[in-house]
Records
---
Amino acid sequence: MLLGSDEYLQEFKKRLNEDKEYEKLAKSVNDSYTLYLKEEPKKGITEPLIVGFTVENGKITDVWRGERKTNFILTAPYGVYVDILTGKLNVNRAFIMRKLKVKGSLPRLLKTSKATELLVEVLRTIPTEFHGDYSKKSIKV
């Protein structure tokens, strides 16, 4: 599935909503998120990829492509997201190292760090095709 496609987003929602551990870890989360994957023309990523989702009491209630007003905006070059999804970079370390910039309350985001790490683990189970030069790092499950 192509990262950021409607098919990918629906699979993201389905898998997270089936994960009882994620529901437990995120039960106090009631926030919306925009993920902004910045273009990297030299790597074949000519346009930004913008997706988002809403979590309510441990369940993903909405997923979308494009911009919306959300509680958090997480911005990084496309390759940083690839490194997170392929396990080369821990998502919470990416926040702390400022490789993944956060607009919104970082302390509030880090309070749910275990849920965030599990969310990424679940995403790693989805066969994911990356864009541009990153296609060689695609996740095959």
---
Amino acid sequence: MDRPFAYSHKEFEAVRQKIRQLTGINLADSKDSMVYSRLSRRLRALGHQSFQQYLAFLDTNKEETEHFINALTTNLTSFFREAHHFEALASFLESHSGPLTIWCAACSSGEEPYSIAMTCAEARGCLKHNISILASDIDSKMLDKAKAGIYPIAQVEKLSLARRKQFFHKGKGANSGHARVIPELRNNIQFFQENLLHNHYKVKPGIDIIFCRNVMIYFDKPTQEIILKRMLALLKPKGWYIAGHSENFSHLTHLMRPMGKTIYQVV
């Protein structure tokens, strides 16, 4: 493959060490090409001639740190992805009519928290209800997309007609080909930036449910346990932690017990 910038295993290891230092994320060996593809855009944007030059710049320029993290954090999501979790959430809401707080701890471009918000609105039968939805991500650009709530119409059309009519406005003119989440639904979600590796979170104790799906796979097991202890400490007794389909915490039964379908309850 033709690569305009010199790129060896040495550069890849330097990037891998830097992103782990900043976020705790462990990049797999298979991410070699992804790292080149995403960071080469930063090299072009900044006018750097090599990865070594860029990494030296990164060490001395704190403003570039955010761009570096944004470039390397993977954001793959869709509305109602792993639908069984939202079915379980709907059942939970049926048996819990009081005030609730739900934290979506890796919200990416917003499809997951909006799916949570739609489920809550349907369960309560209205858009103004007693459920607080928090949504955080480490990637500031993804957070901006999430806050805007604008998506390609092809993505929105995968939802039922009833949901499209109730929760989205179809774009016209310059906005043709896109749809936007209605403001009443957007207003139900509080978006903010959060690094799960930090010692102290902006989220306060008293959470009922945490969605943190397909995130822990990027951390080694010791780091997983550290982060999970911090997160689970924020849950109410018998609160839920909802993980992704590729995650398994059977080695952490002292922290939480499995309830099936990658849903766990704090012990």
---
Amino acid sequence: MKLFLTTLSIAIITLLLSCDSGTKAPTNQTMDFKQIPVTYPATRKDTSVTDNYHGTKISDPYRWLEDDQSAETKEWVTRQNIVTNGYLSQIPFRDKVKARLEQIFDYEKYAPPFKEGDKYYFFKNDGLQNQSVLYVQDNLNSQAEIVLDPNKFSSDGTTSLGELDFSKDGRYLAYSTSVGGSDWRSIVVKDMNTGEMLSDEVKWVKFSGIAWQGDGFYYTKFPESKKERS
């Protein structure tokens, strides 16, 4: 981990020097790196978990971490994030990196348009938006209107747009959302004629596409969690 963080720091410094307003860094320039101590929290080992593969016993003491819904796993992630953010906050050139990246990425970005039904759609990012916005046009010369703005899915902006697919006639749009970067997603449906959201919602979706067929669509999901059933 220490090697990775040091390599990352060198890469960031190189980026800043190479992109800095036409100023070429001297070839003999050296850089002093601040040594930031990292103390990782202890992780519980469950020595009772083993598998027997054709007579060979394999220990798996950290299998409890695979349950991402458990209180213990969530608490472990919180402690790990404290360590990570504590390290990152002490990097002296971090603000300069942030300002430079904002300067580089602050321009309008368009994705290629596509047609669904009798209308045209495209994604656009004004510059520094966290997520691109989906627009619709009746024709290529008409005024574009917003269909979906993922930046407004949640008040803190951490709910993102995942997969999306239109019905064959373009009437319905099914799309998935992810909260806080989770692999777990929910699929909802929007009526493109009325602009209203349907009551349908598919939860506990993971690593699934959306494929319309007739009046519905194919998807894959996992069983609901014990907490949802209780």
---
Amino acid sequence: MQGIIFRGTIRMIPKSSWVRPAANRQRRSPANPFVAFVLGCLMVLAASSTNCVQAEIIYSGVKNIALDTPTFSTDNYYGVAFIPGNSQDQITFDNNETPFGLTLYVEGNGVGSPLIDSSGNPQALSAGTTIGSGSSGTFGNASTQYTMVTYPSGSGNWANVQNGYLGVSFTENSQTYYGWIELSVTPQPNNLHATIQGWAYQNTAGESIAAGDTGIASVPEPSSLVLAGLGGLGFLGAAARNRWRRRLVLASRS
């Protein structure tokens, strides 16, 4: 019986140093990019849904309510109720005849207060002005009638103001809320023409609001996000499959 003689030395190679065939190294599942993309889409949808539901500013929409005083013998009144169902208007406007001519008044009817300057006149604010506890000026007495403008003298902060904002505060269930009312005032012969264009308030008690802020953000609709997500998934899937196929081809050649 012949024996087999091995010449040389035998070395033990640690398992950690083993190298897999190139074909096995190149095969990776394309599923992980799909999972990451789907989770990202779900997070975006959840965030957008929260923004749509939890709106902080309540906006009336465009109103364009005319407050005309066509003659010196008529009176035109309008009350703004920020919170629907409230038994009392939070802010009221009175456009009427006075011994000095035609005057536009604002008062809180015991509930609301206009933002006034140091002379006690309601301020005509520009868009973006902060309305709240830190506003420049003070909020008047809720039971006092304040003059916005008088014609023909043209006295008052609201003379010839177009798209100005009246800062207001009002109380509901012993809590203070802040808001704005957009108005335009135009003098005409024997007619003080005023238009209430809309209003809004911050529905979180004590929180300030910017004049003109309607709370309407340019957030895509959830349906649009879903369609974008599906399109992105299709594109990502095609790219992943192409990469996977190229790797298989390279592995087969090695």
